[in-house]
Amino acid sequence: MKTTEWYLEKYGESHTHPTNILIHKIFVPLIMFSVIGLLWSIPVPENYPWFINFGMGLVLLALGFYSSMGVAIFLPMLFIVAPMIYGNFVLSSSPLFFKINLIIFVVSWVFQFVGHKIEGKKPSFIEDLLFLLVGPIWVFYPFIKKLKKAA
Questions:
Q1: With contact defined as beta carbons under 8 Å apart, do 136 and 29 qualify?
Q2: Nearest CA among 16, 13, 40, 32 for reference residue 140
Q3: 98: which of 15, 41, 69, 80 fits an S-S bond (Cβ 3.0–4.6 Å)?
Q4: Residues with Cβ within 8 Å of residue 119, at least 6 apart in sequence
Q5: What domain range is 135 assigned to?
C-alpha cells in the first residue's frame, strides 16, 4: 500500500532543483484553482444550487483521496481548497470566468514544464496520474508539518 510518505518521496525525486521547486510552489496552487474553475464552467442546469458543478465534483474526489491519507492531510487540504472554491465562486459571475481560468491554466502548465526542463526530469504524473493530487500536498507539506507539530 502506498503511503503519504511514499507519494511525497516519489514526487520529491523529480523536484529537487530550487527553480523547479519555486515554480511548483507558485504554479501548482494556480493549476488547482484554474482546474476547479474550468470544470465549474461546464454548464449544469440553471435550477441547480451554485455548489453543484463539475469543479466541486473534482474537489470532492480530491478530498476523498486526501481523506484516505488521514486527517492530518485532509483537514489542511480542506482549508487550502476552500479559498479556491470561494475565489471561483466570486469569479463565476464574470463573463470572463472561463477565459481567466484558461489563461491561468495554460500559463501555469507552461511554467511547470519549464521547471521540469530545468530539473531535467519528467513530471511525476506521467508515472501515475494520482501525482496530480499529490503535487498540492507536496507544495503545502511544510505548512502541514507545522500544523502537525502544533497539534
A1: yes
A2: 32
A3: 41
A4: 14, 15, 16, 17, 20
A5: 4-150
Q: What CA–CA distance (Å, rounded) separates 42 from 92?
A: 11
Structural domains of the chain, count: 1
Task: Note the pTM of the prediction, 2 decimals.
Answer: 0.91
CA 23, CA 1: separation in Å to the nearest integer? 30
User: Average model confidence (pLDDT) for the chain?
Assistant: 93
Do the beta carbons of residue 136 and residue 28 sit within 8 Å?
Answer: yes
- Tracing cell 484558461 back to the chain, one arrives at 102
CB 101 within 8 A of CB 54: no
Longest CA–CA span in the chain (Å) reads 49
Cell of 121: 526530469
Angle between helical axes of 54-67 and 71-91 (0-180°, round to 10) = 170
96: its cell numbers: 470572463
